[in-house]
Amino acid sequence: MSGVTPRRVWLIGLVLVASVTRVHAAPPDPPVFRSASGQFTLLTPIDPAPNTPIRALDGAVINLGQVRGRVVVLNFWASWCLPCAAEMPSLDRLAATSNSRDIVVMAVSIDENGAAAVAPFIADHHLRHLAIYLDRHQRLGSLDLNQAGALPLWGLPITYILDREGRVVGYLTGAANWDSPTARRFLDYFVVRAAH
Question: For the whole model, what pTM was predicted?
Fold first, then answer.
């Protein structure tokens, strides 16, 4: 093989290694996504989500382990919270248009009066697609930042993103437009990332 020198073989090998590394490298951080009052914050280290059981508005009991395998948009809210009320319709539209095999949207109310406060709110705001849960004792998410085992609620609304492996990858405080093209790109990052 005339013209093939050890240097050329070494350079070809380097190019091949670089391209294989590029294919298997970790994807970059998610696209920037902001709410009215903040920006999505990635968490490090990534911890498993609490497996605390919560009750759905219809009475069924669920824990986050039951939705493992999908990206979870876990929103904490209350009926008395004005930014929450502004955000809920976009969460409802997100739930209506998302592929349920890839994304599940869970809205967890921390209202002390539970279903008595939440059911009229849901009816008044015409929320038809959103899975609503009750955490009146704040066991899954808590405004008391010292409560062991609960996700900290640094204000309302706050939304945690869980990856397909059931890990809490980050959070966003404040009301966001969850059915916007920007939100779709943001959530698609987590849906696609699991395939790498």
Answer: 0.85
